[in-house]
Amino acid sequence: MATVELRFSAQPEHVRTARLVAAAVARRAGVDEAVLDEVRLAVGEACSRAVGLHRSHGLTAPVRVLLSEEEKTFSIEVGDEVPGSGGGAAAGGRATDGEAADAEEEDEMGLAVISGLVDDMEVSSSEGGGVIRMSWPAAPPAAAPDRAAP
Which distant-in-sequence residues (6+ apart) come within 8 Å of 120 by Cβ? Predict the structure, then answer.
């Protein structure tokens, strides 16, 4: 099992880099070309959500992205460090009631978009933060044919 770990500061401009890395690793893992756009979009949504949570809670810790290549599965975990963030953006936040409601609605919309792009998605949270885990079927790339045979 190969794993790539990416950490980036919670800045919106870094989300694009995370999407590009995820697509490259997914391609190498054997994810079907037709699904790569869904991988990019799902990773973009999950990373944007994590960046937004970090920024709204004043956290300077990096956003974590783990890309894992298993035998027949490619999975991505996007983690934040906002306690209890798996269920809603307003959890433990510093926002006013109106801002908290807007943030929670935006968070739910982001999770709905991700669930529409990914067949296998799990959202969890703890005191250490939240994690969105997504996975797609993958097939190892076919070996190059042996050209030495007559």
Answer: 134, 135, 136
Helices 97-117 and 36-56, axial angle in degrees (round to 10)? 160
Distance CA 138, CA 131 (A): 22
* pLDDT tens per residue, range 28-65: 999 999 999 999 999 999 999 999 999 999 999 999 99
- φ, ψ at 47 (rounded to 5°): -70, -40
Nearest Cα residue to 82 out of 65, 96, 100, 62: 62
Calpha distance 115→45 (Å, rounded): 10
Convert 114-135 to b/e letters by CB count within 10 Å (16 or more is b): bbebbeebebebeeebbbbbbb
**Residue 26: CB atoms within 10 Å:** 25
pLDDT on residue 91: 41
Condensed to tens digits (0 to 9), the pLDDT of residues 64-92 reads: 999 999 889 999 999 999 987 765 444 44
Amino acid type, 35: V
Fold of 2-137: Heat Shock Protein 90 (3.30.565)
Show me where the domains of the chain are located: 2-137
